[in-house]
């Protein structure tokens, strides 16, 4: 679907997967006007296909578009268009447990121009791709390196928007963490470099003395849809959730006192991911003996059960895709 100033969004179409042709001067190549989303469709044994809270992805996409001075989309239209797109060939969607259809909607600036300003033309594309199970060999806790030198997002920046540039700037830290033997980076705030924000593609939660802590949204943390769903589930189970500023010092103190019971990340890719090892300034924190905690497992089973239609969906999160 294309956007032209004065005309709005026009010509939505479903076409076979193929390369895009863009002008080398298209503004997306130079100034990063690029917004994206990520969600999944699940097909269960009866062949029913479900999307998980797709309205939330298009709401967030509009917040990102707004931050980037890009044209907004009609959220209801996008959900309906996505349902039609996924329904084109349901047989294509893997049925085995944990497998799914990954959906990547994105909007890019297409106008050829070297001037630094908002583009007048855009393209919205949705790419679909079957993906294997994230934990093919069972759940495995991730090792996370707390980043001190680089900053992912600052107040007033684009941290809470899902834009390409946020990820571009994070890759060097990821490479360096990998060299040190860690799989992912935990970002701290970009002001005092003290408070926990999020992991590269996940929000984070910590179970401390029976309470669950997660960093409060502050304008530089991505508003994860799995994060929101996790908070709603925990509250529904009567488990206290505290959204607050969490400093690494406070977390380390809880760890030293034996109060840090579990840690996990939340995001579309892994859904719920146990954290087994955190390295902060050389202090190694082995959480729950590098085992997947009880609450982490319970959340994973419940969330994936709802996504596949195997558990009761009391919040109405699942959207069925019909012909
Ligand atoms: N933070 C970042 C930076 C992300 O890229 C993602 C993945 N979209 C998340 C958190 C988790 O968000 P969600 O639960 O909506 O996938």
From TrEMBL:
One of its GO terms (biological process) is L-valine biosynthetic process. Keywords: Amino-acid biosynthesis, Aminotransferase, Branched-chain amino acid biosynthesis, Pyridoxal phosphate, Transferase. The keyword Amino-acid biosynthesis applies. The modification N6-(pyridoxal phosphate)lysine is found at residue 162. PROSITE patterns: AA_TRANSFER_CLASS_4. Its cofactor is pyridoxal 5'-phosphate. One of its GO terms (molecular function) is L-leucine-2-oxoglutarate transaminase activity. Its EC number is 2.6.1.42. It holds the Pfam family Aminotran_4. It catalyses: L-leucine + 2-oxoglutarate = 4-methyl-2-oxopentanoate + L-glutamate; L-isoleucine + 2-oxoglutarate = (S)-3-methyl-2-oxopentanoate + L-glutamate; L-valine + 2-oxoglutarate = 3-methyl-2-oxobutanoate + L-glutamate. Pathway: Amino-acid biosynthesis; L-isoleucine biosynthesis; L-isoleucine from 2-oxobutanoate: step 4/4; Amino-acid biosynthesis; L-valine biosynthesis; L-valine from pyruvate: step 4/4; Amino-acid biosynthesis; L-leucine biosynthesis; L-leucine from 3-methyl-2-oxobutanoate: step 4/4. Belongs to the class-IV pyridoxal-phosphate-dependent aminotransferase family. This is Branched-chain-amino-acid aminotransferase. It comes from Brevibacillus antibioticus.
């Amino acid at each position: 679907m294309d956007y032209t100033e004065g005309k709005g969004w026009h010509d939505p179409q479903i076409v076979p997967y193929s390369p895009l042709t863009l002008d080398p001067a298209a503004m997306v190549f130079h100034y990063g006007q690029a917004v994206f989303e990520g969600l999944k469709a699940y097909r269960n044994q009866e062949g029913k296909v479900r999307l998980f809270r797709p309205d939330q992805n298009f709401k967030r996409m509009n917040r990102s578009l707004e931050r980037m001075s890009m044209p907004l989309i009609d959220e209801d239209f996008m959900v309906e268009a996505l349902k039609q797109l996924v329904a084109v060939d349901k047989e294509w969607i893997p049925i085995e447990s944990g497998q799914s259809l990954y959906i990547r909607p994105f909007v890019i600036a297409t106008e050829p121009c070297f001037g630094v300003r908002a583009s007048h033309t855009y393209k919205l594309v949705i790419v679909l791709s079957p993906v294997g199970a994230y934990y093919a060999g069972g759940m495995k806790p991730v090792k996370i390196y707390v980043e001190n030198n680089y900053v992912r997002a600052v107040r007033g920046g684009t941290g809470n928007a899902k834009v390409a540039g946020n990820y571009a700037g994070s890759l060097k830290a990821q490479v360096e963490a990998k060299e040190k033997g860690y799989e992912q980076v935990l970002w701290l705030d970009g002001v005092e470099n003290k408070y926990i924000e999020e992991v590269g593609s996940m929000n984070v939660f910590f179970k401390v003395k029976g309470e669950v802590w997660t960093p409060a949204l502050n304008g530089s943390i991505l508003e994860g849809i799995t994060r929101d769903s996790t908070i709603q589930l925990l509250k529904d189970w009567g488990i206290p959730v505290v959204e607050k500023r969490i400093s690494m010092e406070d977390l380390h103190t809880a760890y030293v006192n034996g109060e840090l019971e579990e840690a996990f990340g939340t995001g579309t890719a892994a859904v719920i991911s146990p954290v087994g090892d955190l390295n902060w300034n050389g202090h190694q924190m082995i959480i729950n003996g590098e085992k997947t905690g009880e609450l982490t497992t319970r959340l994973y089973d419940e969330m994936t059960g709802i996504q596949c239609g195997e558990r009761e969906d009391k919040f109405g999160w699942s959207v069925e895709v019909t012909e």
